[in-house]
Structure formats: C-alpha cells, structure tokens
Amino acid sequence: MMLAMKDDERWMRRALALAEEAALAGEAPVGAVLVDGAGEIVAEARNAPIAAHDPTAHAEMIVLREAALRGSNYRLPPGLTLYVTLEPCTMCAGAIAHARVSRVVYGASDPKGGAVESGVRFFEQPTCHWRPELTGGVEAEACAQVLKDFFRARR
C-alpha cells in the first residue's frame, strides 16, 4: 500500500534534515529518503559527490544503490516512495526509472538542472519505459531556502 499524501510532509522534513547535514559537510544540500508502503525507511542519504569523489553520488543515487543492494535486485519492489528535497536531474530520473520506483515526491523545483517538471521532462518522453507517480512542491519553500542559504554563503 502506498503512503498517504498526509505523510509526505513528514518524510520530506526527514529528507530536509539530511539536506542540512549535507550543507554542514560542504555538499550541495539535497537529501533523500526511500520509504515503503508500511511507512518504514528503506534507505536514506544526503548528497556526497565531493566526499565520495563521485559525480554520481547524488542523494537519490545513493538511496537507490543502497536499496538495490539490500534487496539484491536493481529493480526495487513495488510500492516505494522516494522523497527528495530537490527536483531530480536527468541522471537521477533515469535511475528512478530503471529501479522502478513507484512514486517520487520532491520539494523545490530546479529550473536549471531538474528533469521532471523542468528541462527534458524525462518521465514524459515517449522513450521512457517507467513513469512513477509524481508529486512536486512538498515543503518547497523550506527545501529552496536551504539551497539559497548554502549558495549565498559560498559567494
């Protein structure tokens, strides 16, 4: 059973806490939480490309890798919801499709690098083989603010 919409804010706040941890570590503040239909966390992560020396170490990618390893299958079980504080990029959208994530909930839109409602609109392409249910804008202001604060401090 998929999570009720009322739980979206709860899980996004957990992802936001992970984003704040990323900021403290000097990483772009993005957090992700993968939750099953029973409301249990399957995996959670924060951005780590700098620390991991890995351009693919986006929060979503780390979460998907961890869940796939735990389940010994690159295709994740049905009914999982991925919460992420920033609209996924093209790389992450592709991984979400390959993993067969049932639902994606994101906070802030990313007009520059996003690929869900912005840019290539990955899941709307005729060549996309898996389309998760999408919900954007959950805790959007808080998610956007942590990003703005992080990059403002860097300038």
What does this 3D model show about the protein?
Helix 4 (90-99) links the parallel strand 3 and strand 4. The chain has 5 helices and 5 strands; from the N terminus they run H-E-E-H-H-E-H-E-E-H. It starts with 7 loop residues before the first helix and ends with a helix. It has 155 residues and is an alpha/beta fold.
Provide a compact summary of the structure:
The protein has 155 residues and is of the alpha/beta class.
Given helix and strand content, the structural type is alpha/beta
The best one-word shape is globular
Helical residue percent?
A: 25-40%
Q: Give the strand content.
A: 15-25%
Give the strand tally.
5
Output the strand order for the largest sheet: 2-1-3-4-5
Largest sheet: 5 strands, mixed
Distance between the termini: 45 Å
Compute the number of helices: 5
State the order of secondary-structure elements, H for helix, E for strand. Answer: HEEHHEHEEH
- Report the radius of gyration as a whole number of Å: 14 Å
Stretches where pLDDT is under 50 for at least 5 consecutive residues are none
Question: What value does the average pLDDT take?
Answer: 95
